[in-house]
Amino acid sequence: MLSFYGERFGSRLLLGSALFPSPEVFQRSVKASGAEIVTVSVRREGARERAGQDFWRIVRELGVRVLPNTAGCRTPKEAITTAMMARELFDTPWVKLEVIANDDTLQPDLFGLVEAAGVLCREGFQVFPYTTEDLSAAERLLGAGCQVLMPWGAPIGSGQGLANRAALKSMRAYFPNTPLVVDAGLGAPSHAAAAMELGYDAILLNTAVAKAGDPAAMAAAFAKAIEAGRAGYEAGLMPQRDMAVPSTPVAGTPFFEFGNG
Fold this sequence. Notes:
With 261 residues, this protein is an alpha/beta fold.
């Protein structure tokens, strides 16, 4: 089973809560996905107090674990302040930590991320850092106290899939005992299956589900893809080869020649 900071979960799909056309569609999508963890932007919901109250009611009815995030924060100080607000609001030490460096790619600011993670871990937070595949940054985040890493698959909302598959594969090999969650950039269920086949522990989705023609159906499709990808990884995928290898070898096989004589 999936485990984060000592808590165990049956589903390996984490679902974001933004961009859905209505609260009802969001609710149906969570149920269809089987997700047990939902991410929530504190800044966005806090800015819409009445709508936010309705949203909290839906989340409570779903019975899911809330993972507040610091989406939109550009500096460590801003992210730390937002995390503190989230802990008071949700009474949870969990926080998905985002410190964004670039408006076009929404790439994480790795320097600011490590700085904020260190402060929050010392304050008793259980941090889920949104990062890249950079191994040195990953080591520093783990050294700061993080027990989970959330590398991007591609820029947020891009739908590109695994933009740097080789780097993600290296990250999995380099940190075999750390829970790794591919977060951002996945656009199709096949992308999620590919990440799980690399040995990743879970997938975090939002845009690919929320912006689908039928979000609930897409959520269910991703859930099945994640389950299939994980099952394939655990079963042991065959290695890739440069040349063909016949499934029916001919060496040592008797041949019979039929003629007229």
